[in-house]
Write a structure and sequence with these properties.
Length: 315
């Protein structure tokens, strides 16, 4: 998959992001065998797409859009894969991570991007800004996630409240800061019950996964049955909670029971250098590869079957 349009990594480890957002589900789910190093059994995964909105062009045909977001103060690149692998648009003066209003698959007509060192902006597809929210000027937001009620959560990478999370009720207002055990917050995502999971580094700079159960502000640390080398994206895949390991080029699929996360399978992102944010769409997973300065697409769950490399060069 060769293109001159994908984004180039600029030496920032955890703030290069991929977000699939908004459109008809034109990518068919895979029926191939799961790429597994299973803890207990081998199986195949049936991805059940969520209903998604669609964006109509002037001919009435639905479109899909994918976004790769560069580091702070740069830009987001817009694609319409699988129609093509050419860059079709750009959003200037943004950077960081992105999120949309779906657990996985394609979002419903809007998405959020960290738009500056202390701001995040909501966009209507493909790139019309709707509104901007801010965290205090001495904070650096790292990530965002939306729950099913429309509340927006923003993680803090660095600053006075480094490691905290900020909840914007109904994605508006000034936000409520919630202290966490982390020194640096990297990524977060919700499961199908509305429980928030987030990761990063603790105050000893060791990887840590935490949970804030739905309806509470209580934080509990989750112990994983395997070792995560460098925690990355968190996302529900329709069956399990997934955590990307940026150093291992792998996605771990967990069953959560209390404060324990049992490894149920591993998706290998073979050949990737360092997938920062990943996004599970319809039968594929997108990787924003900071290690290789590339964007890459893997079949999900059989990621080894159709790995596609996207040359990442700044236009």
């Amino acid at each position: 998959m060769n293109t001159a349009g994908l984004v180039r990594h600029a030496s920032v480890l955890v703030i290069l992001a991929m977000c699939s957002a908004c459109g008809g589900s034109t990518i068919a789910p895979s029926s191939a065998a799961f790429d597994g190093r299973y803890a207990h059994s081998s199986a195949s995964l049936n991805v059940v797409p969520q209903p998604s909105g669609s964006v109509l062009d002037r001919t009435g045909q639905s479109k899909t859009f994918e976004y790769i977001v560069d580091d702070y103060g740069s830009y987001a690149t817009i694609f319409d894969y699988p129609k093509s692998d050419k860059r079709i648009g750009k959003i200037e003066n943004v950077g960081g991570q992105a999120c949309t209003n779906a657990l996985y698959g394609y979002g419903k007509k809007t998405f959020w991007i960290v738009a500056g060192s202390n701001q995040i902006t909501e966009y209507a597809v493909p790139k019309k800004p709707i509104k901007t929210l801010s965290v205090p000027s001495n904070e650096m937001p790292s990530s965002c996630a939306l729950d099913d009620s429309g509340d927006l959560l923003v993680g803090i990478l660095d600053g006075v409240h480094s490691g905290d999370i900020v909840i914007f009720k109904n994605a508006s207002g000034t936000g409520t800061d919630i202290s966490t055990p982390l020194a640096r917050e990297y990524f977060e995502g919700y499961d199908n019950h509305g429980n928030l999971f987030f990761d990063g580094l603790d105050h000893s700079y060791a990887p840590q996964l935490d949970e804030m159960p739905k309806g509470t502000t209580t934080i509990k640390t989750i112990t994983t049955s395997n070792t995560i080398k460098l925690p990355g994206s968190i996302q529900w895949d329709g069956t399990y909670l997934t955590v990307t390991d940026m150093n291992a080029s792998a996605m771990y699929r967990y069953a959560i029971n209390g404060t324990k996360a049992k490894l149920m399978g591993t998706v290998s992102l073979s050949g990737a250098g360092e997938c920062t944010q990943t996004w599970i769409a319809m039968g594929v997973v997108f990787c924003a590869d900071a290690g290789n300065d590339n964007g890459e697409i893997f079949r999900y769950p059989a990621s080894f079957a159709t790995r596609r490399r996207c040359k990442a060069r700044r236009a």
